[in-house]
Write a structure and sequence with these properties.
This protein is an all-beta fold. The protein is built from no helices and eight strands.
């Protein structure tokens, strides 16, 4: 299956306790060939960006960085696996690790926001 992330907007629906993305965090995705990038923010995150490579199975190998509400720069890496929901929206199952701070790991799910 070919995945197209361009123009999709996601929000966090679950996250490990050591994560900073929450329900108020929105991710605005763009794609050109096998490269995906996004700007994100909301909740604990003032502004962030991510850059990812799309694998043949549609999964994303990404790096991210953001500035949080506490004024700290945070960086990390994530492997994100897509699921197509019955209504055609994407749900992403993510395993991530901070590359700053305590270098801890976690899991999250982000889900595409239904566009009217």
């Amino acid at each position: 299956m070919q995945f197209n992330y361009d123009g999709r907007v996601f929000r966090s629906v679950s996250n490990s306790g050591n994560g900073e993305a929450g329900a108020e965090t929105h991710f605005h995705y763009h794609q050109q060939q096998d490269v995906v990038w996004a700007a994100y923010g909301g909740g604990k995150i003032l502004l962030g960006s991510l850059l990812a490579k799309v694998h043949p199975d549609g999964s994303l190998d990404m790096r991210y960085q953001h500035l949080n509400q506490a004024g700290e720069f945070m960086t990390g890496e994530c492997h994100s696996v897509p699921e197509v929901l019955p209504d055609g929206r994407y749900r992403m199952h993510e395993k991530w690790r901070w590359t700053s701070g305590d270098n801890s790991s976690g899991e999250s799910i982000v889900e595409e926001i239904k566009q009217d």
